[in-house]
Write a structure and sequence with these properties.
This protein starts with a helix and ends in an 8-residue tail after the last helix. It is built from 15 helices and no strands. By secondary structure, it is mostly helical.
Length: about 300
């Protein structure tokens, strides 16, 4: 039930951007050479001269009906612009999550298994570097080395799945590695910490004493018991993914929502900025709600009051 109040607070913050911003939407639409009278006329058309609470209620009513307003720059509906950019962003996000989880969880498990050894320290050093190095630097490094020098993958752009599986994947490999590096590093560190805590439990020592194969002990017992913190950090780390999409899509010229955000900020297109922030916030809230619901599947002892 907390989802509705959270989205209400998010709506207030997003709406407030238009009032704390030094940019006047009416002046942007009117242009640099508009007269004050013309600017005031546009402000009245946009209903910006009305009391702020009336503007907010009107805006919320439009949002609930699926109307996020119109772009100042292109005069197209904001929702239409977002939906047109949705496929590249969703594809990049899913590919990034897949890459991060497939790489990070095994690293975390192996590091916990070989705790306090040279291998463990080396893996955690890599994880620390992955969190510390800026995503745009990793992106440019991959472009220069893999795309330009070796010519293995495309430098920039996006290919839809309808154009073929390999063109689709080849345009997402480098961006997903760029975006997933910090994400994977975070998951790997949490996986190691959770696994170390679980592996100190009596039932794990009993399983090992019975002679069960180490792979079964690690995956069948320890990893399953440590799953809740790992799933939690995957959900919370989604914030990194949302923020990283903006940078990564700009570096690799991917025509997604992140790129739309950058272009809208440069053009001071406030309705589009509001719409994108609202969508990003809603996705983040929904992802965390799904993570909470997933807890009940991972641990039957967890129940939420109806």
């Amino acid at each position: 039930m907390a989802t509705i109040p959270v989205m209400g607070v998010v709506a207030i913050i997003v709406f407030g951007l238009i009032h704390i911003s030094p940019t006047d939407p009416a002046a942007v639409i009117a242009g640099d050479y508009a007269t004050p009278a013309h600017v005031e006329e546009i402000r009245q058309q946009l209903q910006l001269d009305r009391p702020i609470h009336e503007q907010f209620l009107t805006w919320v009513g439009h949002v609930l009906s699926g109307d996020l307003g119109d772009s100042i720059f292109s005069e197209r509906p904001v929702l239409q612009l977002i939906l047109a950019r949705l496929e590249p962003t969703v594809s990049l996000a899913l590919m990034t999550i897949l890459v991060a989880v497939v790489i990070a969880v095994p690293i975390g498990v192996v590091a916990a298994w070989q705790a306090r050894t040279v291998l463990d320290r080396a893996l955690m050093l890599l994880a620390t570097l992955g969190i510390s190095v800026p995503a745009f630097w990793i992106g440019y490094l991959l472009i220069f080395s893999v795309a330009l020098d070796l010519g293995w993958l495309p430098v920039q752009g996006y290919a839809s799945l309808s154009e073929g599986l390999w063109p689709f994947l080849s345009h997402l490999i480098l961006p997903s590695i760029t975006l997933g590096t910090a994400y994977a590093a975070l998951i790997a560190r949490i996986t190691r910490a959770s696994m170390l805590e679980v592996m100190g439990q009596d039932y794990i020592r009993t399983a090992r004493a019975k002679g069960l194969p180490m792979r079964k002990v690690l995956i069948g017992h320890a990893l399953r018991a440590a799953a809740i913190p790992i799933v939690t950090v995957i959900g919370l780390g989604f914030a990194l993914l949302i923020g990283g999409v903006v940078i990564t899509e700009s570096v690799f010229a991917i025509p997604g929502i992140g790129r739309l955000t950058v272009d809208s900020i440069q053009r001071k297109d406030i309705p589009v900025i509001q719409g994108v922030l609202l969508v990003f916030s809603a996705v983040y809230v929904v992802v965390n709600l799904l993570v909470d619901l997933l807890y009940t599947l991972l641990d039957p002892r967890i129940r939420y009051a109806g």
